[in-house]
Each structure stands twice: as C-alpha cells, then as structure tokens.
Amino acid sequence: MVVRSSDGRQRPGGVTQGDSGSGARLAELGQSFVRLRRRCARQGRHVRQLAAEADRIATTPTKPTARPGRRQRAALDTIREKVGYHTAWARWSASVDEIVALIDRIARYPARSIDDMILKYEALQWSLLDDGALFDRAVRRQVVAFRRDLVALAGSR
Questions:
Q1: Which one has a higher pLDDT value, 21 or 12?
Q2: Element at 2 (helix H, strand E)
Q3: pLDDT tens readout for residues 135-156
Q4: Could you tell me where the beta strands, DSSP code E, fall in the chain?
C-alpha cells in the first residue's frame, strides 16, 4: 500500500517520514524474519532427508527394478508419500511463501539506521542467495562481500 504524506511524497505501507514507530516495527519484522529463516532452513533439511530416504528405498536391490519412465516415477512418488515427503514439502513451501511475503513487507519500510539497512540486506540476501534465485558465483561473492562491508560499517559507528 502506498500512502501520500503531508508533504505530498509517497511512502510505502503508510509509513511517514516522521513515524518514530517504523524503526520498532522494522525490528519486529526482523525478529519474525530470523525465526522464519530458521524454520525454512530446518524444514528444507527435513525435506532433503526424506527425499534421500525415498531414493534409498527406491534403489534398494531387494526391490524389483522398474522400467525407466512412468512406472519408475510412480513408484518413487508412492515411496515419497509413504516416508512423508509430500507433507513435509507442503509445510516447507508454505513457510517459504510466508517469508517471501515478510520480505516484501520489510522492503517497504524505509531504513532509518545502519541496523535497518543490515536487516533489509539480510532479507534481500535470502531472496537472492538462499532461495536459489541467483546462481552466478561471482555475483554471489559480491553480495556476500557487500554484507561484510555493511556489517563493518555498522561496527565502526
């Protein structure tokens, strides 16, 4: 939501230039971001473990080998259902949707301090690096290096 302040400028989410509560609100969003980021990581590890377990069961020599193609995919899908992969994946996917919406809210608040900038950077980094949207290793290194510079600047105040 975009709102016009008394000076005619547009502000995201109803936050005005003189809004002293926006820093506190951004800090609250930051705490939620940290919690959701941990949850997504934990659920992602669980999904990968279940996928590996299903693959291990599917390739066990005691099972008759299925022909490659549709039957093999159907068998793997059935095994994944039995080990709980689909349920775990749905939970992880819902958490990712939740963190993406939260990152959008964080991006709408103006940064009022270096700590706010670090939070906004962390959210952007998750979107680009942890979510797998960015695959270029050189750009990945540049993004990580920028974080180091930003944190060093925050520590030097």
A1: 21
A2: strand 2-4
A3: 677 877 888 888 888 888 888 7
A4: 2-4, 10-12
